[in-house]
Specification:
There is one protein chain. Helix 1 crosses helix 15, helix 5 runs parallel beside helix 6 and helix 9 packs across helix 14. Strands 2-1-3-4-5-6 form a six-stranded parallel beta sheet, with helices on both faces. The protein is about 45% helix and about 15% strand. It is globular and about 65 Å long. The protein has 15 helices and twelve strands. The mean pLDDT is about 95. The protein folds into two domains: about 210 residues, Glycogen Phosphorylase B (Rossmann fold), CATH 3.40.50; about 160 residues, Rossmann fold, CATH 3.40.50.2000.
Amino acid sequence: MTLRHIVVFYTVAGGGHVAAANALKEILEATGQYRVTLVNPYVDLVPNLDLWKKITGRSSEDIYNQSIIRNGKTGLFCLGYYLGILINFRMVHRAAQREIAAYLETQKPDMVISVLPMSNRIIFDALNDYRNQSLDRAHARAVVLITDWTEYGYHIWFPKGRDFYAICGTEDAYRRASSYKSLENRVFQTQGLLLKPSFNSGPPKDKAVEKKALGLAPDRPVICMLYGAHGGWRMRDMALALRDSAPDVQVLFLCGHNEDLVEALSQTEWPFPTRVIGFTNEVPRYLGASDIFVGKPGPGSVSEALSFGLYLLLDGTMALPQEKPVLNWVRRAGAGASFRGNRDFQTAVERLLERIEAKEPSPVALPNTASKEIPAIIDTIFGRS
């Protein structure tokens, strides 16, 4: 049996895109029908076309991860960065298209899936070049799997053209994609954003058991702090605010790749039990032992917390443009609350702890079945003539 070959384009700008790429590889190869190749075009194919690196000496991914995500330079800095990226893509479109088309020539894909924004027109133009080389390549499909809550702006995720399909994990994203006439009958919706299959099981049957397994008291609330895979320093500010109010809690600090943050939090004295964890693939284990999620409104981490039925406290101060739809949805759905500033955060925690103390019903976990649905969607797309 010849396996169909799928090439997934991703980026390591934040953690959501690479997490989705890895999840796709896992779930599609598990079917026994596909082999999946992951490629980061900015690093593997066109690093020489990175305008930011030519100007600053730092790659566009490094600027995003270090300056915007880790150090919190949002607002005008972030918007200026995005504008620079869009200008960069306009300037190098043809050159990047040639490089990507040459790469596809070596890979001979049956499908290209993009889990990154902004550069999809370049990727799909390159795929069209590959298709046009011979009739036996005309079958190659193109798909966008959006990892944001919805598209921020127009044609950021879904470029103009009728040559691709879209997979959306939220109603907001589905409506946006469906609003483009070029995508008529080409949009699919899953129940939630794509998460690793390890999130499928939802909340544990006995949270006290999960707390004990982590060496925590089973009868005390647990707060899980997570500020993205690259560990924003904003977590330290909120951690110190929590220390000042000293609630009767236990805290899990998930610091991602920020080893300096791990060291800083580990060396701090806390008035409550804590565990400081660097980058880990066991996020479901820690969420399963938690009662309250505190962090930036990243679509991936919020989706993970929702699947475990946690109280949500989202930091509105750090919200990136593409994260604001997450905040809006959480408020609209009554799924949690947001905060700005130390006192606002302390008050929000106090209110949630009062609800937990009063044994009010916990939030209802939202099942996430995207990883189960996507293989069938891919089969359907391949079946389209």
